[in-house]
Amino acid sequence: MKRWPFHGGVKLPGHKEESTTRPVEPAPLPKRLILPLSQHIGAPAEPVVAVGDKVLKGEVIAKAGGFVSAPVHASSSGTVTAIGEHPVPHPSGLSAPCITIETDGKDRCLKHKQQTDFRQLDPATIREQIREAGIVGLGGAGFPAFIKLNPGKPVNTLILNGAECEPYITCDDMLMRERAGEVLRGLLIIQHAVQAQRCIIAIEDNKPQAAHAMQHALQRLAADPIDIVTVPACYPAGGEKQLIKIVTGQEVPSGGLPIQIGVVCHNVATAAAVCRAVEHGEPLLSRYVTVTGSAVAEPRNLDVLIGTPVLELLNHCGTDFNNLEEVIMGGPMMGIALADHGVPLVKTGNCLLAVSRGEIEQRPSVMPCIRCGNCADACPVSLLPQQLYWHARSKDFDKIQEYDLFDCIECGCCAYVCPSNIPLVHYYRFAKSEIRSLQEQKRRADIARERHEHRERRLAREKAERAARHARKKPGTDDKAKKAAIQAALERARASKQGAPPDDV
Amino acid sequence: MLSAALALTLLALVFGLLLGYSSIRFKVEGDPVADKIDALLPQTQCGQCGYPGCRPYAEAIAAGEADINRCPPGGEQVIHALADLLGREPVPLDPERGEEKPPMVAFIDESDCIGCTLCIKACPVDAILGAPKQMHTVIAEECTGCELCVEPCPVDVISMIPVKEDIDHWKWPLPEQENGELS
Predict the structure, then answer these.
(1) Strand pairing of A300-305 and A336-337?
(2) A118 in reach of chain B (CB within 8 A)
(3) Domain topology for A364-471
(4) Residue B183: predicted pLDDT
(5) What Å distances lie between residue B94 and A93, B42, B53, B70, B103, CA to CA?
(6) Per the CB < 8 Å rule, is B54 touching A449?
(7) Cβ contact (<8 Å) for B171 and A445?
(8) Residues A425-477: pLDDT tens digits?
(9) Which residues of A touch B170 (CB under 8 A)?
(10) B179 → closest Cβ in A94, A366, A393
(11) Do A427 and B175 make contact, defined as CB atoms within 8 angstroms?
């Protein structure tokens, strides 16, 4: 099958072997589970339990807070001990609302309903099941999965993203090796839901075992329109738009979505979760997580309950805390450094990278931009990173948007190749968050203006009404009218007395 | 000679009618410059500029009566935006008008509120809820932080507290500038 290269990208050392030698095992049940209400893009979930409630594994503890939202389920049985702020994995290191469950160690499970064959279900029912299961894009973005299953347009190609291009991360690789059947059945369910004409499973060529396992499972299923495509290992081949370019040759328009060109893309782990949700009615309770890095004695993949504190996972894999520089959630290119090891693992957390002190050489000093253009060559979105950099530095937020800042996927290729070690992505993130904040300020100002104008109008109206009341009370014309009315009433009374007496007297 | 004069008169008449019609047909309501200025102001309606609200200040700027540096809540960012819009040089904030502060929100200590409604009357955006002899409270989401309610309170139970930083409103800081850069 033909493949189309995307612009730019970088070849990175994989560091994948470290964590793929040991089989995946379940992480031990933690004493406490911390479940953030916002583990997805969209409105935070709303708690439906109270402190002191007993919950079973799989029970809904927070319902979706809107259309673009996802519910949260208890990932083990126990007692709700707190609903409130707790540190979460976020670059700010700030806290966010979480539900804390003290586990009882019994892992008692809510009875899942028995499911029928998905082919007999209509797409709307499947979407509803996936929505209720709280499944979000497990590749990292965390967009509620059911929305992508309702494209509203005919789907030409459904792509299953098994590229996993970032160094160190191997959870999708191990998932495909160990649960290939589940991934494939999930793909078939998604295909049925979106009525896709053809399916492509894209796997980077540095994962031959995963590709082999998928091929094997495919032969057993004998599903027809599914192709397994190996793509050359080149970061960021696993980026949604880059992968679409590689396997279809089509480009997603700037600021647009893949569905505009008839493509839907899902991660392999999302497909596996979809399979469990539809076949067994099981919500998203756990995921594969790579725990690796030079500070980890036994790098491996674990099957982790959502909400498990990161510290327990690091301990389980033998992390040398004396020699620990930092822990990154995600990969070395796009991950975030964790300020606190007590944060929970969330639905989108694919990897914990524990970096030892010696591993990153002393952060090289930042030098001025020499306009070499390496960044523009490496940019997989064909942007002009140095122009973006200059405009971000000078806080020229109109100009930077003219250079399509919001098409930047923050992959870090430009910063990686920069000979002056400029933290370019950091500048773009700064500019993006400033622009979003200005938009928010504008929105609030507009509301305030409207409320102020409303109040002015109301005050003017009240003043006018008061004046009118005052005018009505004035003597003179009013008196005359009153007298006339009294006179008229007297006349009427007199007339009725003089007229025919009523019948009933 | 005569035909030329006639032709010119005719042309003048036609264009005159056209202009007259256009001035009625395409009449612009309001003051578009003041609208554009008003759109840039932060709409706190605090009156620190010396005008009774953002709109009057915008009209004063548009009329050339007020300088662009009288808005402390907008701070440097609004001065720059106004300078850009009006083609002027940015000037520093007028210190007589106050200083730029981090965003604040009013808070009423409800246990001591006597329900006098004076703050409700002072609030320019109707962000305080309450009734006579009933406890009042600030609708934090709608509060612009103008501080106009603080002064009228007879029992001094209204305080301005900084807006709490949360994940949704957190912003990436500007990276440290490079070593070798000439500033």
Answers:
(1) unpaired
(2) no
(3) Fumarate Reductase Iron-sulfur Protein; Chain B, domain 2 (1.10.1060)
(4) 38
(5) 37, 17, 17, 6, 19
(6) yes
(7) no
(8) 999 999 999 999 999 999 999 999 999 999 999 999 999 999 999 988 765 55
(9) 90, 92, 94, 433
(10) A366
(11) yes
Task: Give the minimum alpha-carbon distance from A419 to chain B in angstroms, rounded to a whole number.
Answer: 13
Specify the CATH number of the domain A17-305: 3.40.50.11540
- Domain-wise residue ranges, chain A: 17-305, 364-471
For residue range A160-213, list pLDDT tens digits in order.
Answer: 999 999 999 999 999 999 999 999 999 999 999 998 889 999 999 999 999 999
3-state helix, strand, coil in chain A (%, to 5): 40, 20, 45
Q: Which of B44, B172, B178 sits opposite A448 (nearest CB)?
A: B44
A174 touches chain B (CB under 8 A): no
Instruction: Please indicate whether, in this complex, the C-beta atoms of A92 and B173 are within 8 angstroms of each other.
Output: no
What the block records as the tokens of A314 is: 């690091």
- The C-alpha atoms of residue A304 and residue A309 are separated, in whole angstroms, by 10
Kindly report the backbone phi and psi dihedral angles of residue A281, in degrees, each rounded to the nearest multiple of 5, phi listed first.
70, 25
Put simply, whether A116 touches B (Cβ < 8 Å) is: no
Partners of residue B142 in chain A, C-beta under 8 Å: 447-448, 451
Average of per-residue pLDDT values in chain A: 90
Place of tokens 């990173």: A385
Three-class secondary structure of residue A86 per DSSP: strand
pTM, whole model, 2 decimals?
0.85
Position of tokens 């730029």? B100
| Closest among A310, A311, A289, A309 to A300, alpha carbons compared | A289
- For chain A (505 residues), the mean pLDDT of every run of 10, in chain order, is 89 91 93 94 93 94 93 95 94 93 90 76 90 92 89 90 94 94 93 91 94 91 81 92 94 92 94 92 94 93 95 93 91 92 94 86 81 95 94 91 94 94 94 93 93 93 93 68 80 76 46
Task: Give residues with Cβ within 8 angstroms of A162, minimum separation 6.
Answer: A172, A173, A176, A183, A201, A202, A203, A204, A207, A210, A214, A267, A268
